[in-house]
Design goal:
The protein has 153 residues and is an all-alpha fold. The chain contains 5 helices and no strands. It has 2 domains: 72 residues; 79 residues.
Length: 153
């Protein structure tokens, strides 16, 4: 198959998955909790709607531009590695918990994408997941996967 067909098929598959995710978020999750605060559906609705809008725009732009049919992105290997890292991240969530999984994912991603900047990558791989942990666990009181050996905090 040509590159244009592969790109269109990939974007349409992602659009379908994002639409299913958004539909689930809007139909099965409450926007507000019984106490009147933001509920479990707030972030999934925002993320789902954003994904659908951005992917629909990507499909529109891809179909509008007349690229050669055989033009497959030279970055397909990078996309494959990142997809693999995402799958490993999801697999590690229940094993080692949310915080350590986020640190491992960020470290692996940054090691692959940001070679040569070891200190910067290490700081981002540790500080960003810690900030997300504080926002979700402490501020929003959302539960993250604890893992087989839960962290003491």
């Amino acid at each position: 198959m040509g590159g244009r067909v592969l790109r269109a098929g990939f974007l349409l598959a992602l659009l379908f998955a994002a639409s299913w995710y958004a539909w689930t978020a809007f139909t099965e999750l409450n926007y507000l909790s019984s106490a009147g605060r933001l509920g479990p559906g707030f972030f999934p609705r925002f993320i789902g709607a954003s994904l659908v809008a951005l992917l629909a725009y990507s499909v529109f732009v891809d179909l509008r531009h007349a690229l050669p049919d055989s033009a497959i992105s030279p970055y397909w290997r990078t996309a494959a590695v990142l997809a693999l890292l995402c799958a490993v991240f999801v697999g590690l969530l229940d094993l080692i918990g949310g915080l350590l999984s986020m640190v491992a994912f960020m470290a692996g991603s940054l090691w692959f994408l940001n070679r040569g900047r070891t200190l910067q990558s290490a700081l981002v791989a540790i500080l960003l997941p810690l900030a997300m942990y504080v926002v979700f666990s402490v501020w929003l009181k959302a539960t993250l996967p604890r893992g087989l050996l839960p962290l003491p905090f």
